[in-house]
Specification:
The protein is an alpha/beta fold. The chain has a 7-stranded parallel sheet, sandwiched between helices. The protein is globular and about 50 Å long. It starts with a helix and ends with a helix.
């Protein structure tokens, strides 16, 4: 655990889903830039450069512990925990679980961390998806609904937080080469992506880090798409590639 001196000199961040994929890449990026990072993850996997709290990303007691570890000032909250789209689409149990993890947990994180974000005039970054706001999901309407809801929630909290200097934005990844994404095509042969490949967790984390920084102090309520151009490629043009 970082020393009290680090607490007093470094900006603090809370990252959910910190042990894998985009969450882990974000921890690595922020910690490497000198941030004090508190990660939350249900797995017991270690993270480098940060403190890991083992628990559910929507658990109020775990979130309060994370805020306490940041001494009540959270300069960045990154909600990266989630479950991937799966099925069956008509399962009520699947719907409830996906909405709980992918939408309600980020709401809970914002609610619990809000006073600490206000104290630091901080930035919250929610990990959404091109699925939901741009694309539908054949496998999981629940996932699409949750990710579309993330954008509406971020815009609402951006309005709420504006007078207190709290910014709230969304990063919407496309096909990213992590265990989260199903590999329908080889990672380096994506004809549905103009850049021609899947993205990396580090590339998404770079945008998250930018939105958490002072360089984007006038950016709030925005959705930053990180998909290699997939959502601007028509199906007709994709078939010609």
């Amino acid at each position: 655990m970082a020393s009290t001196r680090v607490f007093m000199t470094a900006r603090s961040a809370i990252v959910t889903g910190a042990a894998a994929g985009i969450g882990r890449a974000t921890v690595d990026l922020l910690a490497g830039a000198g941030w004090h990072v508190v990660g939350i993850d249900r797995s017991g996997s270690e993270i480098s450069g940060g403190e890991l709290l083992v628990g559910d990303a929507g658990d109020a007691s775990v979130l309060r512990d994370a805020v306490q570890s940041c001494e009540g000032r959270v300069a960045a909250l990154v909600c990266a925990a989630g479950v991937p789209p799966s099925g069956p689409w008509d399962s009520r149990e699947h719907w409830d679980e996906v909405l709980r993890v992918d939408l309600t947990a980020p709401y809970q994180a914002l609610r619990i961390c809000w006073p600490a974000l206000v104290a630091a005039r901080g930035s919250a970054v929610l990990v959404g998806s091109i699925v939901g706001a741009v694309e539908g999901s054949l496998r999981s309407p629940a996932y699409a609904a949750a990710k579309a809801g993330i954008e509406g929630m971020a815009r609402s909290f951006a309005v709420i937080g504006g007078p207190d200097g709290v910014r709230v934005n969304v990063v919407a990844p496309g096909a990213i080469a992590t265990d989260f994404d199903e590999r329908l095509l080889p990672a380096d042969q994506r004809t549905d992506v103009p850049i021609g490949r899947m993205g990396t967790a580090a590339e998404v984390a770079a945008v998250i880090g930018f939105l958490a920084s002072d360089a984007t102090s006038y950016v709030t309520g925005a959705v930053w798409t990180v998909d290699g151009g997939r959502t601007v490629l028509s199906s007709t043009d994709a078939s010609r590639r």
